[in-house]
Amino acid sequence: MPTPEEVRALLSRIPYPGWSRDIVSLGLVRSVEVDGETARIALETTGRGADVVEQVRRAIREALAGAGITRVEFRSVAKGPVPLPTAGTHPAAGGRGATPGGAEPGPAARPGPPPTVQPKVKRVLGVASGKGGVGKSTVAVNLAASLALAGRKVGFLDADIYGPSAPLMFDLEGKKPEEQDEKGRLVPLEAHGVHVMSAGFFLERDTALIWRGPLVAGFVRQLITDVAWDGLDDLVIDFPPGTGDAQLTISQALQMDGVLIVTTPNDLALVDAVKGVTMFRKVEVPILGIVENMAWFECPNCGERHRIFGGGGPEAAAERLGTRVIARIPIDPEVVAESDRGIPTVISRPDSPAARAYAELARELLAVEGKA
Questions:
Q1: Which candidate in 45, 109, 273, 354 could, as Cys together with 263 as Cys, close a disulfide (CB 3.0–4.6 Å)?
Q2: Do residues 154 and 236 touch, judged by C-beta distance below 8 A?
């Protein structure tokens, strides 16, 4: 009968599904024991789908059968968070990439078709913007917190792979999701009554990612399929700015109930907001409305409103696009400070004008659901 070392040598010839690297070098084989014609193998299965695990087990049985092993007993080991891939010689990346560490990609962002299983949630809401710097993530975080305050069970998916902000804005920096459900999916972290998942949980704060589109799409799919979202009333998705791979991947992978487009009133932001509306309509995602952020600044001394970025643009754009301005959020310097402290404004200052605007947006969306 083969020794444990010889069994490992045989297993090192088995490639991980879809990859050139083998299951031993990737760290899936945690331990090997041999007792006569029986091999007991511990496999690290964190974040890997049941179909992939079964493919690996089948390949192991076939590889060991020729060595006289008639029975293979498997033990699943879950340790640590889902491994984050790095750009490199990924088979779907179209060539060589570059990373800070130059590491070869792990199996997390495996290529493949979009997932076909919809998370068992009542409603999927997107928050998007045509360009960065318009306060989209702040709107998304406060919307999620407002829905949670209204008694909803809410999830928050930070889909911005290059610039994840959820760890900071939910006061979860330095924390990593470790717990798994009975299906081996990662359980999101929780803050302010919201269940949160973000690529930022797997990155050092100052790490820069240099990924091609297939890597982004693969990891975004994993944030959908390998995370325990089931049982939510609302899943709020904070899209990255623009109209790129993450938006297309999620729009094609999920049956979304609608998306909000966040913009500031100035013309440059509105031009990009229109592009965002057009893109989501092309992939048949309903537009719930335009959120006019930084709509005005109210003088704390005299109470007069000043439209720093101008006015009227969002209404005209909404009318032209056949949608509406669903919310107007005033400029409030304290909102930025609260975001940096990881406390949504609707929790820290619920009676402030900004918090009331976020809460009204949540009520509008609840009313929309009630009419569906």
A1: 273
A2: yes
My answer on whether 204 and 343 are in the same domain is yes
- How far apart, in Å, are the Cα atoms of 356 and each of 22, 329, 335, 336, 341? 54, 9, 13, 16, 20
Judgement on whether residues 208 and 60 belong to the same structural domain of the protein: no
Helix (H, G, I), strand (E, B) or coil at 290: strand
For 234-266, write each residue's pLDDT tens digit.
Answer: 999 999 887 777 788 788 778 889 999 998 887
**Residue 292 is part of a domain; what is its CATH number?**
3.40.50.300
DSSP string, 134-164: S-HHHHHHHHHHHHHHTT--EEEEE--SSS-
Amino acid at 308: I
272-324 pLDDT, tens per residue?
788 888 888 888 889 999 999 887 787 777 777 777 777 777 888 888 888 89
| C-beta of residue 345 within 8 angstroms of C-beta of residue 355 | yes
Count of CA atoms in the C-beta half-sphere (13 A) of 202: 22
Does residue 160 register a pLDDT over 50? yes
Rounded to an integer, what is the distance from CA 340 to the centroid of its chain?
A: 20
* pLDDT tens digits along 189-199: 999 999 999 98
Of 47, 77, 107, the one marking the end of a domain is 77
Q: Which tokens belong to 216?
A: 């982004």
Surface-to-core class of residue 320, CB atoms within 10 Å of its CB (0-12 exposed, 13-18 middle, 19+ buried): exposed
Say if strands 305-306 and 123-129 run parallel, antiparallel, or are unpaired.
Answer: unpaired
Parent domain of 332: 123-371
Number of domains in the chain: 2
Q: Cβ-count burial of 308 within 10 angstroms (0-12 exposed, 13-18 middle, 19+ buried)?
A: middle
Helix 50-65 to helix 4-11 angle (10° resolution) is: 120
